[in-house]
Structures are given as structure tokens and as C-alpha cells.
Design a protein that fits this description.
Blueprint lengths: L3 H7 L9 H14 L4 H10 L6 H15 L2 H9 L8 E7 L5 H6 L3 E8 L2 H10 L5 E5 L13 E6 L11 H11 E14 L3 H16 L9 H9 L4 E12 L1 E9 L1
Helix pairs in contact: 3-4, 4-7
The protein binds S-adenosylmethionine.
The site of S-adenosylmethionine has 22 residues, from helix 4, helix 5, helix 6 and strand 2.
Length: 257
């Protein structure tokens, strides 16, 4: 595969503080490091589009998603933050994707509802999970989600808040509050800016490139997350920062309504 198109697009987003030459080296190293990996295939698909939406992007990459991204380990890691052995009656998975996270929730909940904006991701999830205890629905969590018949006692969202458009983060959290029972719990992951400078430059390049196509790649600092939660009916019970050493870091936020 020819990665020149991708390279030429990335190199137009040079962060302040480095030269074009340095940016070229960073990008070349990055492309070389992920050669042969599905992530590069996904990025090449994005490079071929001049304009995208999150929905269309996930529809286009649904078949490569599981091979390209390592959200799986974050799913299990997130669930270990639940300190008690309580079983939930209804769990909701916001941005359920191909159902990896939805399936994991079946271990702790009697019924699980997975919501996602992408039909192709949902189709993959339907193939993966054949259970009368799961309902998979198309919904946009940055819009007003209609109340469901029953409110959940657990809400989960892994790897999805990065796609929330600027200004819509409050709508997302209001949806969490609306869908939760009083006393209900939630675990939501966020992406924070990378601490490592090289990663931060590369992250800047990739994020700006994605945003130039109409795709959101949000980063939330710990302070922003705390401020945001303080304006909702959710109280943070634990916040765990995980350094990834690659592009960006992650934060796991446990909260109760
Ligand atoms: C990185 S994937 C994570 C999927 C799954 N939670 C996992 O851990 O494998 C992000 C998912 O969020 C979905 N998503 C992004 N924006 C959304 C929105 N506004 N409403 C609903 N789903 C959304 C995408 O379609 C995608 O399936």
C-alpha cells in the first residue's frame, strides 16, 4: 500500500515548537512503527476521504475495528474498578461499537442495552452477541436520547467520549444522568493529552488531521473532567489516570448519581 497520501496530509499540520523536518521524521517513524498493522489501514481509509462524519468513519472501518484498536484491555481494566460484587439489573453501554464492551457487561448485569451511532458497528455487535439479554440500538449520545422504559443502575462508556464534538460534552453527561437510576453507577473513559512531548506533537498532528476531515478527536484534561462532572448530578468516586506511552493517556472515571 502507498502511504504517500497519508504522509502528505499529516505533514501539513506542524505543531508549534518543531520544524517541518522534525515533523516529517516523527510522522515517518510513526508510519513505520505501524506498518502492516490494521491501524495504518484505517488511517489510509480516512486519508482517502476529504470529509467524514464519526458515523460514516465507523461504518467504513467496522470490519477492521477489532484488529486495529486495543480498547479490549481497557474494557476489562475499567470493569475491575467496580469494588463490590453487586449484580446490576440493567447496564447501558454508550458507544457499544462491535459489542466487545456490551458482551463484557453480561458478566455483571442481567440485561444490557448497547447504543451506537454506526449501523455497521451495530451489525458486527449483533453477529457477536446472540442473547435475549441484550438489546442493541442506534442512537446519538450527543443528542437528547429519549428516556428508556427502565433506568439503568450501571452506565459504561469506553473509547467513545473522544468523539464528542466541542460543546456537546454536557449533553453527553446529561444523557448519562437521565438514563441512570438514583444511586446508579457509571464508568466512563476519557482521553487526556499525552505527557510525553514527542507523543504530544504526534497527537497534535493526527488530531488536527482528523479534525480537518470533520472528525472529532477530543482530549479532556483531568481538571476539565472534574469541572464538567461538578456541573452534573454525578459525583466522582474514583478517577484513575493511565499513562499509555503512546500518543495519548487515558482516564477512567467512576461516578455515582
Ligand atoms: C472506539 S469505539 C469503542 C467501541 C466499544 N465501546 C469498545 O470498547 O470496543 C467508539 C464507538 O463510539 C461510537 N460513537 C461515537 N460517537 C457516537 C455518538 N455521538 N453516539 C453514539 N455512538 C457514538 C462509534 O460509532 C464507535 O462504535
Amino acid at each position: 500500500m502507498d502511504y504517500e497520501v497519508l504522509f502528505n496530509q499529516l505533514v501539513t499540520f506542524i505543531p508549534q515548537g518543531i520544524t517541518r523536518k522534525e515533523a516529517e521524521i516523527l510522522i515517518k517513524q510513526f508510519i513505520n512503527n505501524i506498518k502492516g498493522q490494521p491501524l495504518l489501514r484505517v488511517m489510509s481509509i480516512i486519508a482517502q476521504q476529504s470529509e467524514f462524519t464519526v458515523e460514516k468513519m465507523y461504518d467504513s472501518i467496522a470490519q477492521y475495528y477489532e484488529a486495529a484498536f486495543s480498547e479490549r484491555k481497557h474494557i476489562m481494566e475499567s470493569l475491575t474498578l467496580i469494588k463490590h460484587n453487586k449484580r446490576y439489573s440493567l447496564a447501558i453501554d454508550l458507544g457499544c461499537g462491535t459489542g466487545l464492551s456490551t458482551q463484557a457487561l453480561l458478566n455483571i448485569a442481567d440485561f444490557v442495552i448497547g447504543l451506537d451511532i454506526s449501523n455497521n458497528m451495530l451489525a458486527k455487535a449483533r453477529k457477536r452477541i446472540d442473547s435475549t439479554k441484550v438489546k442493541l440500538l442506534k442512537a446519538d449520545f450527543t443528542e437528547n436520547i429519549p428516556k428508556l422504559e427502565e433506568r439503568a443502575d450501571f452506565i459504561f462508556s469506553v473509547g467513545a467520549t473522544r468523539h464528542i464534538p466541542e460543546g456537546k460534552e454536557f449533553v453527553f453527561l446529561e444523557n448519562v444522568v437521565k438514563l441512570l437510576k438514583p444511586g446508579g453507577e457509571s464508568i466512563i473513559t476519557f482521553v487526556t493529552p499525552a505527557e510525553n512531548l514527542g507523543s504530544a506533537y504526534l497527537d497534535y498532528i493526527i488530531r488536527n488531521w482528523m479534525e480537518s476531515k470533520g472528525l472529532c478527536e477530543r482530549r479532556f484534561s483531568v481538571k476539565e473532567i472534574k469541572d464538567l462532572y461538578s456541573k452534573t448530578g454525578l459525583t466522582i468516586t474514583e478517577l484513575k489516570l493511565k499513562r499509555s506511552g503512546f500518543l495519548y493517556d487515558k482516564v477512567f472515571v467512576c461516578a455515582v448519581k
